[in-house]
Amino acid sequence: MDSSKTIYSGASGVSRPDTSAVLNVEEYASSQPDQGRTGYPKPSGQSLSYWLQQVRSDPLLNHRTTKELPNHVDTVVIGSGITGTLTTKHLLETRPDEKVLVLEAREFCSGATGRNAGHCKPDQFRGFGKYEKALGAEQALKILQNEQDTWEALVSYVKENNVDCDLWIGDTLDVPLDDEVADIARDVFDRLRKAGGKVDHIKVTDNPEEAALITRIKGAKACYAWLASTLQPWKLTAHVMRSNIEKGANLQTYTCARKVTNGENGQWIIHTDRGDVACNRVVHATNAYSAAIEPSLRGLITPKPHMCNKVVPPRAWSGTNALQNSYAVLLPDGGLFSINPRSVGDGAIMFGGSNPGQKELDAWVENHPENCTNDGLARIEYVTKHVRDLVEQEFPGWRDAEFGPGEGFDYSWSGIIGLSADGVPFVGELPGKPGQWVCAGHHGHGMARIFTAAPGLVKLINGQSWSETGLPDVYQLTEQRIKRIEEKTAAPKVAII
């Protein structure tokens, strides 16, 4: 399919005409963020995510392969999260003599990858309705299949390389807490099946009593279960980067890229706080910060703070009584809680997603746009409050459980999401700027996309066609796609899951 002919109408919410209930397909925010805003990574005072707290003695955090920046390399990869790290991996595998420099503004992998809720959860049905409406059934099916492919690629890599990253594989549960949301979920599931989507691997429980037993959530109206994973994302990324360094990659932390300008003989100059580097090729792998470095991405990728909570369960919900599944709890008004209970780790429970308190944070950022890249936020009570309300109302016995020191609502931190203007990532070469490549705008769902998007980008760099990437056509960065976005009167809203 020629992606330039794809019709965009905006990935808006899926709901019935007679109800305002939305199946978590809208960005859960008080208002659409100002798409002109952007910013560089916060230089100091960042909150430490749970994952970063665990690795404070790891020398990779402030690693510099060489004392000084090189004057010239073949490729500069800006960003050391999972996108930049995997892109470097595939570049070195396909171009073993390539001189690759990875620039990181702060500590290694201290952006979104090192701050998320620790899920790799392929969307297998819920997003079909919004993608079908915005992009057509063919692309909607491809997006869901790509997410499954991504999960399988991640799991295969971890197993084949024996990566120590707390990988858990098991049933993830989508749990609507409202009759209307359950009805919408059923409608979307049925439409997916009729469109030829793969659904045999999804276990569906429509009986609320049975759903409550399976999920251990009192208000469950239904349950949709399929295989997914949780993991320690920093440790996975670090494993890949160590291998990259052994193969010749040059990692330079605490080196903020500020802009890219034209050099001599078709080269690009990367201007950093520590000096300039000339290169033949640039890979923008900074996600939320992309538009700060490359102005042509302004309005296409917009930064937005998001919170994640770490909760230590009470004894009544520990040991053999600990949660055994990951979750997406779907709320009546379009919000969502993601839940990662760290089943093969320490049992601490990560709560992410778009809970109702996120609206207040979004409104605050709209009034204080200088905080659009503020990942120094921690213990935001109006976000934590809704996590507390959920577990006390829906987890039997939690409200009355005895909490000792070290148990309970321990900590929360912020990460910066790179919102895409049309809800799906940008992968490809920047129009009019040959040699500048982008893999960014993952819209809070990068772990379910990057393990295929990054190698797909490298295939394009190596001259292969878009069809050879195996990625959905609508992910491709083209002039036509940018023009469609610029001509839209309102930006779409897509869930953070």
UniProtKB/TrEMBL annotation:
Cite the residue spans of the region called Disordered: 1-20
Gene Ontology cellular-component terms for this entry are: cytoplasm
Spell out the coiled coil positions from the record: none
Boundaries of every FAD dependent oxidoreductase domain copy:
74-448
Gene3D superfamilies according to UniProt: D-Amino Acid Oxidase, subunit A, domain 2, FAD/NAD(P)-binding domain
InterPro entries attached here? FAD-dep_OxRdtase, FAD/NAD-bd_sf
The name this protein goes by in its record: DAO-domain-containing protein
